[in-house]
Every structure is written in C-alpha cells, then in structure tokens.
Amino acid sequence: ATVTLLDLSASRSTSLLPTTAMDYEGQKLSELLFHILILTFGGVGWVAGYFAQNFTYVFYAWAIGTALSVVLCVPDWRFYNRHPVKWLEEIPTSAPEKKTN
Asked: Which pTM does this prediction carry?
C-alpha cells in the first residue's frame, strides 16, 4: 500500500465545514455579494478620503470590505445551498462487466 502525505479523498474528511458543495444559485449570490461589498466600501472610502484629503481612507475602507467579503463569500455557508442540483439517476449497463485477473 502506498502512503501519501496529502490525502484528498472525500471518504476521510476531517473538516469542520459541511461537505456539501455550493450550488449554482449560491455561487451567483456569493459573487453578487462580493461585488456589492467591494464597490460599496471602496466608494464610501473614496468619498471619505476625498473630503478628508487623505487617500489612505480609500485603502482602509477597501481592506475592510475585502476582509468582510472573504468572511461572507469564501466559506460554504448554508444560505448558499438553497437550490441543490438534482442529478439524473445512473443508467444501468445492459451487459455485465467481465472481471479480469
């Protein structure tokens, strides 16, 4: 038996996060939320930096928006899995498989 240092098999998952994958509607929502957060925080930071005549406010606001969007958009939260994909059933084969030794 071969032992590897990095086992990526799904059967031995020790992650604390759920093992479900984000559905397509959840991916769309995550991307929309990401864009809204980045643009809103960047815009507010730009306006605040313009009136304060301090350009670092733009970077501070952008960094806060980026950190918040990473927390909200990267993990697979449950509200991203509201529309699970329904896959087709497996089509059985007509001929039995032959075993080879």
From this structure: 0.65
